[in-house]
Design brief:
An eight-stranded antiparallel β-sheet has the order 3-2-4-1-10-9-11-14, covered by helices on one side. It is globular and about 80 Å long. Helix 14 packs antiparallel against helix 21 and helix 18 runs parallel beside helix 21. The protein has 21 helices and 24 strands. Helices cover about 35% and strands about 25% of the residues. By secondary structure, it is α/β, with parallel strands linked by helices. Bound molecules: 5-amino-5-deoxy-1-O-phosphono-D-mannitol. The site of 5-amino-5-deoxy-1-O-phosphono-D-mannitol has 15 residues, from helix 10.
Length: about 600
């Protein structure tokens, strides 16, 4: 998730754009940049680090322009460096582009453009866009035609805004699977990734849909589809305050991030398709160079690791152990040069995970980091990196980071299974096709079937509980752990996650009529077993809240409350079943009036031991 701001109008573009970028900071940033048209020339300014420092630097410059584009980058391809910061320029310096999203076919496009003599100055996927426009201009009648030809050749997700000295009073923008909105002011117009960027100036907005482009000047905007057919758009009046707008109208970042999961999981898949399909190598990893895997992680990322063990052992048939990084680093693990250590970390800065990685490396292991933050310490120290492309996660309670980690680890396990010959290509393809269904299944659960309302109703009944028990088995046992962690960390209610089969060895003694017991009872190889465990809870008068798939009469009969989750392939079920548990914790914490996004005693990134 990057932030785009474009401006054309009566004011100094530099100031308007910087103010807009500051309001998009919640989208994450590691570097920022600005391009202005000054005396028929494009001037570019960039800086790595905080936007405030960039602002101070720009304030010292005596520069004035009525048109420009700006960008805060949250790296997806290429490290957060000055060269990789946007805007990017064409070879002749007459076109500048900012981009949000992932250009999936950037590798072949770059090759084509290099062979035609273009020079690249960054490692970003974005830079192909500006060179492609420049190339298409050679055979086009005007900039707009070249711009349209370019967007038609891009695969992946993009929100683009471009300026050119050939038409120095216009912003050209396009959207596919990445948000972009045009703001219409009085003798001034804006383009942005999100409304807060221009909300202090105007509340009149036109949202671009996928496959639409806009040509924007200070008097307004014209809209087209990718084939240049004009599109009639509706101007919306945004009723939100600035703070509301940053959260997309949601009350907290956590709930916003929960609802972002269909998009985030889709981005994880598309961002990792190239190596998964064998179009590019997964650099730094030789599939036959190890015969065991050790996974190290903390908190929610550790729970993703527990599920990854199922993926690795069942698909790739390779033994996998999972450790809390804080334990691993002190337990003198047996590691050698035939060990692959996978560090799972959203931030890439968790001190214990980094220490575990360093220990493993010192003992000869190869390191793979599954990480969300590009350029973070874990990604720099690992031999190989798989990014999760979840976008910045602001809420301390991890939600979309978890489901995207599972997605990335599922892809890696299938890739490994194919490369090591543990599964045939067809089996891998079939399992992969199940993964492709996941974003729409989550979407259906959240938005179409409105099961979130069911979860909210149940949360209202239980928010005063002092304890809760979460049960799951097999691949959903870690989901019980994750559900309990979510509840603990934001609602401060004591909660435990347990493998349901372990109940009779102790925890069943806790159950009485006041105890909510949340059971993941989705269909799969151990469905009947978990139904028996539900009976055990019921016999002790526990209140059973069951997560089940449609058409599960056995579980339904026992449950006091049911939450229906869509049925998916068994190994993928954790990605779906965790979502009601995230919502349950969220609503309980909200009913209790707690600071959901910043729970007491917790930090987003634990950079000390
Ligand atoms: O950034 P990391 O994935 O390394 O962070 C690990 C844990 O600190 C993190 O998952 C933590 O448990 C979350 N607050 C859970 O919601």
């Amino acid at each position: 998730m990057c932030g785009i701001v474009g401006y054309v109008g009566r004011d100094n573009a530099k100031n308007v754009i910087i103010n807009g970028l500051k309001r998009l900071e919640y989208r994450g940033y590691d570097s920022a940049g600005l391009a202005l048209i000054v005396n028929d020339e494009i001037k570019v300014f960039k800086r790595v680090g905080k936007i405030r420092e960039f602002e101070i630097e720009l304030n010292r410059l005596n520069i004035y322009s009525n048109i420009g584009i700006g960008h805060t980058r949250w790296a997806t391809h290429g490290r957060p460096t000055l060269e990789n910061a946007h805007p990017h320029l064409s070879c002749d310096g007459k076109i500048a582009v900012v981009h949000n999203g992932i250009v999936e076919n950037y590798a072949p496009l770059k090759e084509e453009l290099l062979s035609k003599g273009h020079t690249f100055t960054s490692q970003t996927d974005t830079e192909v866009i500006v060179h492609l426009i420049e190339e298409e201009l050679k055979t086009s009648k005007g900039f707009f035609e070249a711009f349209l030809k370019t967007v038609n050749r891009l695969k992946g997700s993009f929100a683009i805004c471009a300026i050119t000295t050939a038409e120095p009073d216009k912003l050209f923008c396009a959207r596919k699977d990445s948000p972009l909105v045009v703001g219409l002011g009085d003798d001034e117009s804006f383009v942005a990734s999100d409304v807060p960027a221009f909300l202090p100036y105007t509340n009149r907005a036109v949202f671009l849909e996928d496959g639409e482009v806009a040509v924007v000047d200070r008097k307004g905007a014209l809209f087209y589809d990718f084939s240049r057919a004009p599109v009639k758009k509706e101007v919306m009046k945004i009723p939100w305050s600035l703070a509301q707008a940053e959260k997309g109208g949601y009350k907290h970042f956590m709930i916003k991030e929960i609802y972002e999961q269909p998009r985030a999981v889709a981005d994880t898949i598309s961002g990792n398709t190239a190596w998964f399909k064998g179009e590019i190598p997964l650099e730094g990893i030789e599939p036959s160079s190890f015969d065991r895997v050790q996974i190290v992680a903390c908190g929610t990322s550790y729970h993703a690791g527990l599920i990854a063990k199922f993926f690795l052992e069942n698909f790739a048939k390779i033994p996998a152990e999972v450790d809390y990084a804080s334990e691993y680093r002190y337990r003198n693990p047996v590691v050698n040069d035939r060990t692959l250590v996978i560090a799972i970390t959203q931030s890439g800065e968790t001190a214990d995970t980094l220490a575990a990685m360093r220990l493993a490396k010192s003992k000869g292991a190869k390191l793979l980091a599954v990480c969300n933050v590009i350029g973070s310490t874990a990604t720099r120290e690992a031999d190989c990196v798989i990014y999760t492309y979840a976008g910045p996660e602001i809420s301390v309670a991890s939600t979309k980071a978890f489901t995207t980690q599972l997605t990335a680890l599922y892809l890696f396990s299938l890739w490994l299974a194919r490369e090591r010959g543990a599964l045939g290509t067809e089996e891998v393809e079939e399992l992969y096709s199940h993964l492709l269904e996941i974003p729409s299944k989550i979407e259906a659960f959240l938005n179409r079937e409105r099961q979130d309302e069911t979860v909210k109703r149940i949360a209202l009944e239980f928010y005063k509980s002092s304890d809760a028990l979460y049960l799951g088995r097999h691949v959903n046992y870690p989901i019980a752990l994750e559900g309990a962690l979510k509840l603990k960390e934001i609602s401060y209610i004591h909660a435990e996650g347990y493998p349901a089969g372990e109940m009779k060895h102790g925890p069943i003694a806790l159950i009485d009529e006041k105890m909510p017991v949340i059971v993941v009872a989705t269909k799969g190889s151990i469905y009947e077993k978990i139904v028996s465990n539900m009976e055990e809870v019921k016999a002790r008068k526990g209140k059973v809240i069951a997560l089940l798939n449609p058409g599960s009469p056995e579980a339904e009969k026992i449950a006091d409350y049911k939450i229906e989750v869509p049925q998916v392939e068994e190994f993928l079920s954790p990605i779906v079943s965790v979502i009601p548990l995230q919502l349950f914790a969220y609503y309980i914490a909200d009913f209790l009036g707690y600071d959901v996004d910043q729970p007491r005693n917790l930090a987003k990134s634990v950079t000390v031991e």
